[in-house]
Amino acid sequence: MNFYVLTLFPEMITDTVSHSITGRAIEKNLINVEAINIRDFAGNKHGQVDDYPYGGGAGMVMQPGPVYRSYKSIEEKIGKKPRVVYMTPQGKTFNQNMAKEFAKEEDLVFLCGHYEGIDERVLEMIVTDNVSIGDYVLTGGELPSLVMIDAISRLVPGVLNNDASAETESFSDNLLEYPQYTRPNEFEGKKVPPILLSGDHAKVDKWRREQSIIRTYERRPDLLEKAELNKDDKKTIMSLKKQ
Ligand code: SAM
Fold first, then answer.
1. Pairing state of beta strands 61-62 and 32-37?
2. What CATH number does the domain located at 170-242 have?
3. Do residues 137 and 180 lie in contact, with contact meaning Cβ atoms separated by under 8 Å?
4. Cα(142) to centroid of ligand 1, in Å?
5. Beta strand 83-93 with 129-132: parallel, antiparallel or unpaired?
6. 2-153 fold
7. pLDDT for 57-108, tens place per residue?
8. What is the residue extent of each domain of the chain?
9. Which of 38, 60, 86, 87 to mutate to test the pocket of ligand 1 (most atoms within 8 A of CB)?
């Protein structure tokens, strides 16, 4: 999968993705992350890419020309019109289902704004998806695009050592994941739940499912409305409601 990031701060992208799981995925050629410096397409010798907003007001606005030309360089390189995600607090809030959907693409472009944002005309011309990472305002689109690249990459087959881990974890079926434990089996007097040491896989699975239901009920009850619940799950919820 190829990620192209249009940005004024390319090192923020390349430095971050070179670590840990994304770094290994790049080395193994499972994903490719290219940061394209919008300033290289400024078209003037000072490298100016922003200007005052028409109509007045605070801050600067990124001009349409450099953004458009940097996007066109990708379109020409890959020979097709890719999906272009504009990172914006005005977009649809990113979630795991969107990550799964984006993971099906072969090429994905992220457009990172800065200052007060980007001239609306070029957004109308090239953007296919407006995505936010939450209801707060950041200084630029680089961190949001890194969040998306990270979440999408780990769904690309082969990126995680064990692809099954993405299937059971939080949000995969509108439930939060059960609590996890590792060695030592006793820490500061606190013991690992004995069932996890029993070696009985059926019992462990049942316990984990129950923990997952309890955790979702306590922390994210909104998710439970969309989850597919079996008889035992419903029983667990009934007893939680009585408490
Ligand atoms: N003036 C804009 C507004 O009120 O909608 C905010 C601009 S923000 C200071 C600068 C850039 O940061 C945006 O163009 C966008 O690319 C990025 N950004 C800020 N917050 C974001 C969020 N929650 N999700 C995604 N991108 C965000």
1. unpaired
2. 1.10.1270.20
3. no
4. 10
5. parallel
6. Alpha/beta knot (3.40.1280)
7. 999 999 999 999 999 999 999 999 999 999 999 999 999 999 999 999 999 9
8. 2-153, 170-242
9. 87
